[in-house]
Amino acid sequence: MNNRSTPPKILVVEDSTANAKLLCQVLQRGGMQVVSAHNGESAIQEVEASLPDLILLDVLLPGMDGFELCQKWKSQPRTQDIPIIFMTALTDNQDKIKGLKLGAVDYVTKPFHQEEVLARVRLHLQLSHLTKTLEKQNQKLSKEVQERKAAEKRLQNLTQTLEERVSNRTQELQNTLDELQTAQVQLVQREKLSTLGQLVAGVAHEINNPVGFVVGNIKYLEEYHNDLLEHLKLYQKHYSEPPDEIQEHKEEIDLDYLVEDIPNILESLKVGMERIRKISLSLRNFSRADDTSRMFVDIHEGLESTLLILKHRLKAKGTFPGIQVEKEYGNLPQVCCYPGQLNQVFTNILANAVDALSEEVEAKQDNLNKKPTITIQTGVGTLSESEVKVPCVTIRIVDNGPGMPEEVQKHLFDPMFTTKPIGKGTGLGMSISHQIVTQKHQGRLRFYSTPGEGTEFIIEVPIQGQDDAAAS
Ligand SMILES: Nc1ncnc2c1ncn2[C@@H]1O[C@H](COP(=O)(O)OP(=O)(O)OP(=O)(O)O)[C@@H](O)[C@H]1O
Ligand SMILES: [Mg+2]
After folding, report:
1. Beta bridge mates, 153
2. Atom from ligand 1 closest to the CA of residue 457
């Protein structure tokens, strides 16, 4: 039986008073509330007044028959779900089928079997109740599904927003990190440049003074020597037979050779001094304190100064065969640049080439079948910046060393990237050089490297000097 607190309400539509009465008794005994109607019209009124839970409907009625009534109720949303059970004559199969087709849930046959009627009514009440409960649950479920979908959508949006925020933040952090690294590299670069520059300038200055008075005094020495020689000749002329002691001393010191050799010594002193003077000039050239202003300079001078500083590392020593430097200098105009900084670039690249060649010699020992060589080529070219063609000088520094594997090439310009042992390389050389060429001079720094064959760096610097807005 259904489990509602109020008894279920059954409408009995039956024109036979006797039948109606009998049904009412049976149903009331079954705990149901019963209303009855004797024809179609009163049945419609009853339903309108208050919806029954189930209708027992006779087929044959005066006026509107059972089928019509059924059709009417089934066509209205308010009444379409009320279960209807037809009451038909036992033999009338056509009526049974028609009733079911019209939407009735069941039929009972006359004459009534009381228990059967009660059982069927109960069954259908329960079915209808279950259907309603199911519908309600369905509605609740679909509402829940909708809510869940909405929540999922909200979650999705939230995740997306969150992801966007995370990626924006990551990008911001990456930018800050990049800026920080650039600033760091610039700092180190200045530090490196100024320390090296100061040291070199100091040494050059210190050398200059003594060189100055040695050079200054050599000419007096030469003069005095000539005077003394003149004087000696006079002695020899007037005292052609000197005492033994003088004669012996003359032989002991090999006076003739001495007289002959002193001019040579003086000459080599002069050459040596001239060389020292040139070195000191190169050092000053190399260390120019020109960080703040550009000037027109001869790039070859910078290269020569750099080579001079690295000279001790190029020479053959012990088992080291030395490094051959081949220069193929072109005709270059003066270039507007920061010479001290460009020299720093030449030093970094040349020092790397020397390191690479020396390491290879060390690793291969006697099996090296080539002469370690660095080639420096210079020339004039153009740098194309979008549509504009900018005249530039090109400096190619090529070594026939071990070259670089792909992994090293990928990170060559990264600050702090080094393959050298701790304490040997800072990994800043190339990143500083890259900055100096591209940012300070608006030029270009490229390289090509083949493992086992060597490495080539190409420096391109605009001749007239470009604005370096990006630089400090
Ligand atoms: N000519 C070259 N041949 C082979 N490898 C090279 C050459 N030039 C650079 N490299 C590689 O690139 C790396 C980075 O060079 P970079 O000059 O930036 O740093 P570093 O020489 O290691 O240290 P430092 O800051 O003292 O110069 C080197 O460690 C080396 O592995
Ligand atoms: Mg280096």
Report:
1. none
2. 1
Distance (Å, whole) CA 186 – CA 459: 19
26's enclosing H/E stretch is helix 17-29
Among the bound ligands, name the one nearest to the CA of residue 405.
Answer: 1
What ligand 1 atom has the least distance to the C-alpha of 428? 25
- Cα–Cα distances (Å) from 40 to 59, 60, 88, in that order, read 10, 10, 16
Q: Is residue 150 part of a domain?
A: no
**Counting ligands in written order, which one lies closest to the CA of residue 407?**
1
Residue 103: closest CA among 129, 124, 134: 124
In the structure, ligand 2 is a single-atom ion and the residues with CB under 5 Å from it are 352, 429
36, containing H or E segment: strand 33-37
Give residue 279's pLDDT. 74
CATH number, domain containing residue 47: 3.40.50.2300
Determine if ligand 1 sits within 6 Å of the CB of residue 430. yes
In a domain, residue 210? The reply is no
Out of 112, 143, 178, pick the residue that ends a domain: 112
Strand pairing category for 373-385 and 388-399: antiparallel
Domain of 102 in residue numbering reads as 9-112
Residue ranges of alpha helices (H) inside 80-113 are: 93-102
In a domain, 118, yes or no: no
Q: Which atom of ligand 1 is nearest to the CA of 349?
A: 8
For a substitution probing ligand 1, which of 349, 430, 434, 455 has the most ligand atoms within 8 Å of its CB? 430
Q: 381-433: per-residue pLDDT in tens?
A: 998 876 788 999 999 999 999 999 999 999 999 877 899 887 677 787 898 88
Closest ligand to residue 426's CA:
1
Query: Is 417 near ligand 1, meaning CB less than 6 Å away?
Result: yes
Q: Number of folded domains in the chain?
A: 2
